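## retry 2 of 3
previous attempt timed out at serialization; input unchanged, resubmitting
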Amino acid sequence: MEKTKTNIADTENLDYTIQIDKLNKSFGNKHVLKGFSLNVPEGKTYAVVGKSGSGKSVLIKCIIGLLKPDAGNIIVLGNNVTELNSYELDALRMKMGFLFQSNALYDSMTVRSNLEFPLRRHGIKKTEEEVDALVKEALENVGLPETENMMPEELSGGMKKRIALARTLILKPEVVLYDEPTTGLDPITGSDISHLMVNLQKKYNITSIVITHDLKCIKIVADKVVMLINGSNYASGSYEELQKHEDKEVSSFFK
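## retry succeeded, writing output
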């Protein structure tokens, strides 16, 4: 496979922002990923779908380095995630965002403190004015400019998701991984979040992988849909192409 550089700084002239090649991951005798491969071009959003337990969450945890694959390569922004030490991985994660299914907001912190957390976590030195500007921009991006001093318990489910998204994007990452971004939301709020994801992807030219069961979300956000079946990239194409796929195991998912 080409372009398996490990230099954090060298991210130019890549054909693909994310390259996954023959990824394997097992837990004991359970083989979750078996030769999974996928290339995601810069600025595109790919949705990875499949049945519960098919390995979707394992896949994105491998991409961000939370899990180490048994075999295969994961190239993100020109860096082989499987070869990075902890310092290099932390540096790469500054360019990556991860939206947790549970939102993972800190209940004891205000919205502002939650948004500031990534800055502290990575030791990024900013003046108070610079932090104010980042927080203001992040909240305006998600349409919640007046929530800075609120606590998570004061927010609705949709508002919590928006704040989690604001925190994910406050460092302006080049890559964002979404784990079930609309789970637990009513259809209208889920649609709003999906459209917000698209707007921010276009604004910042973000490359994304979305793990979701929400067909409406897939139709709104995905440039391409990938079916993860039996641990591999079983089929890929547009929503409409997979919906009409001749293989019933693929097409039945979109009914």
